[in-house]
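Hey all, quick one. A colleague (J.T.) asked me to put the iron/sulfur cluster job into the tracker so the inputs and the structure tokens live in one place instead of scattered across chat threads. No bug as far as I know, just bookkeeping. Sequence used:
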Amino acid sequence: MQTQIKEGFQTFKSIFIGMGITLRHFFQPSVTIQYPEVRDVLPAGARSKLFVNIDDCIGCNLCARACPVNCIDIETVKATADIDLGKTSTGNPKRLWVTQFDIDMSKCMYCDLCVHPCPTNCIYMVQEYEYSEFDRKNLIFKFSDLTPDKVIEVKEKLVKETEEKNREKELAQQKKDQEKEKDAGKTGE
Ligand code: SF4
Ligand code: SF4
């Protein structure tokens, strides 16, 4: 009998505590919003989506190296001597064409580790969170602004320049060898 009274008391106590909480929230302002008609402002520092200001990217690869899940894919091509790529807004000289800069947001874990090493502050999180997709492939965001034709052009130019430099080096070496042979011939006379 005593146990039943105790249990009954506990039940009523739980009901009153629960009702008390409900009543307290009943008189407080609502925390829900009518999304998508109403959108809340995200807190400062919220991590939602990565963005790259490609004009300021020097292709140093530091962000990709910092990424623990390898979701940043960068390809660069050295600019040939006749091209001046200028400077970033932070004053860093640009020497590489960024022919590919892909971020796979389906793999990203929003750790922000790629953001901090960037010397030109050109990779950062933006307050955009409505980018869900049915196909994961659509979550690979491409930031390089070079056309496929331009990429081929800059690659071919670099190959040509490298070949020319190698040829010049070879010729210089041949000249040196010939001069050495000449000198050796003179001393032998
Ligand atoms: S936020 Fe983290 S996981 Fe996402 S790209 Fe940057 S380093 Fe990689
Ligand atoms: S760290 Fe910054 S400058 Fe370097 S490759 Fe990444 S985004 Fe570009």
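Adding what we noticed when we looked at it: The radius of gyration is 32 Å. The chain has three helices and five strands.
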